[in-house]
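Worked problem 6 (solution included).
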Amino acid sequence: MKRFIASLLSVLVLMLLSTSVFAQYDNVQPIEMTVNLTHEDGQLQPIWAWWGYDEPNYTYMKDGKKLIREISELSPVPVFFRAHSLLVTGDGEAALKWGSTNAYTEDENGNPIYDWTIIDTIFDTYIDLGMKPLAQIGFMPEALSTHPEPYRHHWKPGAKYEDIYTGWAYPPKDYDKWAELVYQWVKHSVDRYGKEEVESWYWELWNEPNIGYWRGTTEEYIKLYDYTADAVKRALPTAKIGGPETTGPGWDKAETFLRTFLDHVVSGKNYATGETGAPLDFITFHAKGSPKLDEGTVVMNMGAQLNDIRKGFEVVASYPDLRYLPVIIGESDPEGCAACSEEDYPENAYRNGTMYSSYTAASFARKYDLAKAYDINLAGAVTWGFEFEDQQWYAGFRDMATNGVDKPVLNVFRMFGMMEFNRLKVEGDFDYDYKKISDASVRDNPDVNALASRGENAVTVMVFNYHDRNAIEVKPTPVTLNLEAIPSNKVLVSQYRVDEQFSNSYTAYKAMGSPKNPTLEQIDQLEQAGQLELFTSPQYMQVKDGKLTLNLDLPRQGVALFKVEFMP
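Solution. The predicted structure is:
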C-alpha cells in the first residue's frame, strides 16, 4: 500500500511539473511593434549573401549547380562563395569533408606542374552566374607537405573528427615554392577573368589554423601568411588579401591566436619581405552556436554564436589601425560540422525543419545589431551550408537543399533577398536584445521581433518567432505591426511565410510517409513545396494619416515577411 501511495504521489508530482512547464509555454503574450519609415537605422548590407562548404567538387555536380543557380536568383547582389580544399592534390572525386583540384604537382625532378582545370570549372560556375569567390588559399598540395602521408582521409559521420587532419594540413617544406604557386594562381585568374573582376574578389589564407586544420605552429601560420600575401600582391597589387579564419573568439585560445596574428600584421617583422607588418585588407573569424539534446528535445544555443561575434568585434575594435577594415565572419552557423548528419549526431535534428529557418532570421538580425553597437564594418557572414550530393533524403546535414529539393531555411534567404537596403528601427517592448541573447541565449519567453528596411517604393518587415527549445506545442503569438509615416495613401501588401505549413518541403515529405526513394511525381511536389509561398493573396489597403496596422498570428519557429509597396 505504501509503495502504491508513493507511486501515486510521484505521478501527481510529475503531472503538476508537466502542467507547470507547458503552462509556461502556453502563456503566449501578444507582441506589438512599430516601424516608422522616417526612423532610419543605417544600411542593411546584404551580409547574408555569402555561402561556404567543405566539398568544392560539389560545385559543378548536378544538385550543386542547381542550388547555386537558385542562390544566384534569390540575391539582388553578387553572392560570394567560400570553399575548402582548392589546392588539395587528388582526382577531383567528391566525398564528405573532402575535395581536390590537383592544381599543383611536381615532376620527377621537383619542378612544379600547374593544372587549373578543376579550379577553373569551380570558378567558372560562380562567374557565369554573376557570383564571386571568397577564394580560400589552401590546403597544402601533397608534393609540398612536410608530412604528406597519409594524405587523403576517408571520414564518415560518426568517425573521429580528428581523422580528417592528414597530410594536407601541414606547412610547406618550401615556402618559396608555395609562394610561387599562389602567385601563379592569382596571375592565372587575372589572365582568365580580367583584372577588374579579380579585384572584386577576396583572397584568404587557410581555415581555422588554431585547431587541427593547421598542423604547424602559430608562428608558422604567420610565416605562411606573409609569403602568401606578398605573392598575391605581386600578382595583383590591388587584390584583397585577409585572414586568419580562426574558430570563434569566444574561446580563449582562438582569441589569443587572432590577437597574435593582428599584432604581427601591425608591427611584426615580415618573413617574406623583412619589412614591418603585413598586408591585410579584411579580417576573418568564425562564430558557432552549440545545440544539445535534452531528453530527446533539441535545445539550441544562439548565445554561443553571438558571443563569438561579440568577442571578435571587441578584438577588432581594439586595434585603431585595423578597426574599420571589412570583417567577414567566415563561418557563421548554429553549430560546427555541416557534414555531421542527424542520424549520428541527434542534436542536429533542427536542420530539416523550421527551427533552422527561424534561428537564421533571428541570428542575422542580431549580427546587424552587434556590428552597429561595436561600429564594425561587417561585410559578410558566411552560412556554411550548401548541399551534399547523392545522400539520403533529409538526412539532417546542415544544407540548403536535399537531393535538389530546397529546405525551409533557404526560403528565409529568399526573404532576405526581397528586403530593401535602408534599415529602419523596430520599436516595441521586446524580451530580448543582442546583449541578453549573447549572455543567456533564448531560454524563457520566445524571441519575437523583426528586421525592417525601406526603399524608394516599398518597405519590408521580416517578423520572426524563435525559441531555443524545439518540439514544443504552443499557440501562435499574436503580433501587431504598426507602420507609420507611409508616403502613400494606398499600398499593396504581400505576406510571405515560412512555418510548418508554408514554404516547407520537409512537412510535405513527412506527409508522404518519408519515402526513401520518392517517385518523380513526389519529387515534383517536394520541389514546389520547397519554394517561398505567399500566406494570402496580396491585398490593396488604404493608409490613413500615414499609418497602417497589420496583424498576424505567428507560429513558434515561424518567419513572416511583409512587403508593402507604395501605390501612386
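Discussion: The radius of gyration is 25 Å.
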